[in-house]
Design a protein that fits this description.
Radius of gyration: 15 Å
Shape: globular
Order of helices and strands: HEEEEEEHHEEEEEH
Low-confidence stretches: none
Number of helices: 4
Oligomer: single chain
Number of strands: 11
Strand content: 25-35%
Largest sheet: 6 strands, mixed
Distance between the termini: 16 Å
Helix content: 10-25%
Length: 158
């Protein structure tokens, strides 16, 4: 989201920093919101806030600016994007056979919604709003502590 709020930017940096530290010297690659993702099945092109790919990255073109096989996608919710991110966009993302996890993080309160694709293709939701808790991302063997996600974020001023 170009021109995001202070809270949006801090949450994106905090999540990226945490994941980057955990993924160092491992075969997964972390991408920022400038990395375009294509859902071939629905022809959607989108720019997720944070994307992780663990298999060799597959791109749509020689410029390598359109990723085809994300493993994890994180979206930071805003009032203007929340409905789309939760519903239509997630419906598109579920068509990505490579996608194992989808995480939604609102700016306005301590809360994380974490969806994990099960072996049978169903998506299992786990959520928390406890600042002392953490969310585990099993497909990339990482943990996101809510205290880290919301560090320096004033959620009451949004």
């Amino acid at each position: 989201m170009s021109g995001g709020t202070k809270q949006y930017n801090l949450i994106c940096v905090n999540v990226s920093s945490s994941l980057h530290a955990q993924l160092r010297k491992r075969p997964c690659t972390l991408y920022s919101s400038d990395q375009r993702v294509k859902v071939s099945a629905t022809r959607l092109y989108t720019y997720p806030d944070i994307t992780v790919v663990c298999d060799p990255a597959e791109f749509d073109d020689d410029q390598q600016d359109t990723l085809l096989n994300p493993t994890v996608i994180v979206e930071v919710l805003s009032k203007s994007t929340e409905g789309y991110d939760r519903n239509e966009k997630f419906a598109h993302y579920r068509k990505l056979t490579s996608l194992k996890e989808y995480t939604l993080i609102p700016q306005v309160r301590f809360h994380v919604e974490h969806y994990v694709r099960q072996a049978d293709g169903q998506w299992l939701l786990a959520e928390t709003d406890e600042i002392q808790e953490a969310v585990t991302l099993p497909s990339i063997n990482c943990t996101l502590a809510l205290a880290d996600i919301y560090e320096k974020v004033d959620t009451l001023s949004v």
